[in-house]
Design brief:
Number of strands: 2
Strand content: under 5%
Number of helices: 22
Helix content: 55-70%
Shape: globular
Distance between the termini: 48 Å
Structural class: mainly alpha
Length: 420
């Protein structure tokens, strides 16, 4: 396992991490002292000196704290816990009602030859006790559907990171507790067990502590995955227009490796709503902002790397084939944290120009190779690219030759044309 928490397979040779030199260690120590002073007297403006220091990279020891402040901090203390309690309570009652309906159906099927045993969801909807409009949002089908989507993505989020890592997804533990009221449904039992654990954690302040991968008492999911589920559920309740969209799991998961889940929730809120990040449009209905961002990326490639852009056009390689994942998740879904952390140090301070600059730097570095490739070779190259990027060269991507020229040309012009 490396210092970022990534788990490596020893059978494949493992991973040899570079040990900082004496000079590097001293430089980090100096930066830590400077940032400690800055955090002690913070003002939310972003002067040029602050931007320069962010571009140099934050020391690991202060990165989480600085990110939280850049994102606006904990805006309403206690609100995150209130949302967790409200949603956990509502969902527990809802799922237990489903179990009762299942019991009734199972019982009636023994006395009625024409009765069937429908699924829990159909059972719930067959005998609605309240209209959907009158229900608390956490009890609605729309909210439950979002939680189902989140649940599917939880186990796909950083599966090789120590915080979210599972040796084996052994279902026996859930099966032992899967018979509720005589009706056996392992998935339903697991949901209730995890929700009850969430309720205890929110009640007793566990969300204010750094996340570990140990299973909380009585829970069926490792701590990192459970924390990620709670953060995404809380955000989907907080922002009902957006709810949840695939990609948000990687961003929230990365935050959890650096801070408490309450801080991760509020940082997610800040980066979604506020300048300079304003990511909310990427995940809203129709994902209109995603189309705009991809168009800007394509025009910037033509502006700065015309040969490569024309080669992509000749080979029918569209920007959506390689840049969608980069731009939708700000590189969090595929690249190593060595690069991702440095990108986000700058992104939180300067916004979208950093994301475009990193994209151009990546394309520029490998341009000579890409110009010789066919369609299939290009797609294979981009699929394997995250493993090619060296962590030691991470500063190149945020402090590249585009740094100066980017301020006064293509990026702003294209953004204005698209917005108009």
């Amino acid at each position: 396992m490396d210092s970022r928490g990534n788990v490596f397979d020893a059978s494949n040779g493992g991973y040899e991490e570079k040990i900082p030199s004496f000079q590097e260690a001293k430089r980090t120590e100096r930066r830590e002292k400077k940032w400690a002073t800055t955090l002690g007297s913070w003002e939310r403006r972003r002067p040029r000196q602050m931007i320069r220091r962010l571009r140099k990279g934050l020391p690991d020891s202060v990165r989480g704290r600085v990110w939280v402040v850049l994102g606006g901090g904990i805006r309403q203390p206690g609100l995150y816990q209130d949302i967790l309690q409200k949603t956990s309570d509502a969902m527990i009652n809802d799922y237990k009602e489903i179990v009762r309906d299942m019991e009734e159906k199972a019982s009636s099927s023994m006395t009625s030859s024409d009765s069937s045993s429908p699924s829990a969801q159909n059972s719930k909807e067959a005998n609605p006790k309240k209209s959907e409009e009158s229900l608390e949002y956490a009890n609605t089908r729309a909210f439950r559907s979002i939680q189902d989507t989140i649940e599917r993505d939880i186990h796909r989020t950083y599966p090789r990171h120590a915080l979210f890592y599972e040796e084996d997804r052994d279902s026996r533990e859930m099966q032992d507790a899967s018979c509720l009221g005589g009706v056996c449904d392992p998935e339903l039992a697991a949901l209730i067990i995890n929700l009850e654990s969430d309720l205890r954690l929110a009640t007793f302040g566990g969300t204010k502590e750094r996340v570990s991968n140990a299973k909380p008492e009585g829970a069926g999911t490792p701590g990192g995955q459970a924390a990620l589920r709670r953060v995404l559920r809380a955000y989907s309740y907080y922002d009902r227009d957006v709810g949840y969209c695939q990609g948000m799991n990687f961003i929230a998961g990365m935050f959890l490796t650096l801070m408490t889940e309450e801080e991760a929730f509020w940082l997610l809120v800040g980066t979604m709503y506020d300048k300079p990040c304003e990511m909310r449009g990427l995940f809203g209905e129709g994902m209109k902002e995603t189309h705009k961002v991809l168009h800007v990326a394509e025009r910037l490639t033509y502006h700065y790397l015309p040969k490569l852009a024309k080669h992509f056009e000749k080979e029918n390689v569209h920007v959506t084939m390689y840049a969608t994942q980069w731009l939708l998740t700000q590189f969090t879904s595929s690249f190593k944290f060595d690069l991702v952390f440095r990108v986000w140090d700058c992104f939180l301070g300067e916004g979208w120009k950093i994301i475009y600059r990193v994209m151009l730097a990546l394309l520029s570095q490998y341009q000579s190779q890409l110009l010789k490739m066919s369609f299939e070779e290009i797609l294979t190259f981009f699929r394997d690219l995250p493993d090619r990027v060296e962590g030691q060269r991470r500063a190149y991507y945020t402090r590249s030759r585009y740094q100066d020229s980017f301020e006064n040309s293509g990026h702003h012009q294209v953004r204005e044309r698209v917005a108009g």
